[in-house]
Amino acid sequence: MLKNSRAIEIKxxxxxxxxxxxxxxxxxxxxxxxxxxxxxxxxxxxxxxxxAAAKLQGASLFGALTADAEDQELPIRLDVSGKxxxxxxxxxxxxxxxxxxxxxxxxxxxxxxxxxAGRIDPKGTGTGGLVVIDPKTxxxxxxxxxxxxxxxxxxxAYVTVQPGPDDGGTEADRIGVLHRYLTIQPDGNKxxxxxxxxxxxTTFSLDYPTVGALPGFYNxxxxxWSMIKxxxxxxxxxxxxxxxxxxxxxxxxxxxGLNKVGFLDxxxxxxxxxxIQLGGDSGSIWLRKDDKYVCMFSFANTGTGKKSVGFPFAxxxxxxxxxxxxxxxxxAREISLGDDGDAMTSGRLSEEEKRSLxxxxxxxx
Length: 365
Prior knowledge:
CATH superfamily of the largest domain: Trypsin-like serine proteases
Number of helices: 5
Order of helices and strands: HEEHEEEEEEHEEEEEEEEEEEEHEEHE
Oligomer: single chain
Strand content: 35-45%
Number of domains: 2
CATH topology of the largest domain: Thrombin, subunit H
CATH class of the largest domain: Mainly Beta
């Protein structure tokens, strides 16, 4: 059985070539046997349809790419995921008859995480993901996705409303303005992220829907972890971390002049039986089910709604200099999983990656 660290090296070396194959939309690291992380790592290759899978099925993918025998020892699992999409910024109303535990498309004051939020010009609706705090200034922000809070991947004063405009939000429902964001480029992205500076009249609830107060966040999480989240469209849902370090192609549908956009080292959470991510859920936060610690920001999904794509909140916290906002005067806890190179974990940003990302963060005002 190969170590996970070695599996990641192999994935990194061959990912670009694999993604160039017809029908391949993602390449990541997951369990060799679905649902059993103890079975060791495997290369998870996400494909658009059964026809693409049939062409790749049984093929020695690594055999065509390398003569390294150890590379070919890494098991390969094909997953017919369909294409991945950033939750459309301009979208139809909620799916008719969709079961919802609470009406997360409604106006709510104080502003609460997990509910509809968006921009009004051009209009786009997603989920207000998480209230965060700058530990130095004590300023609170609403954190979410760039493609929801920013209308065109540019440096304009986009107004944020709650609920989002697709749920009736207007200027009268204004809660703040886009303050900082990470520009999205055609390839090599790590995050789809931004924060809103609240208006002076805006107040926040620090209780996460169905959960209550959040205690903190994990700096990494693992394949096989059970997760929960609340989003504008699908409501309260659950899923399992299926793959990490996943290089993936996301369809942005022309937003910001972008269509097929490449992301590196993302996480895929899945649920084979029910919808967990649809248009309007972008920005929603995955928590570990066991202890409700924040793990991951979601921003994309498959057309079926059974898979959610995102990145570690710890990356967001590091790049934007924020922490989970909690009701007490204490600082939210950051839990470290240590440095076990043989665990299938989401990974941390290297110093080089941080420097590169810092160059793409734009602060308004």
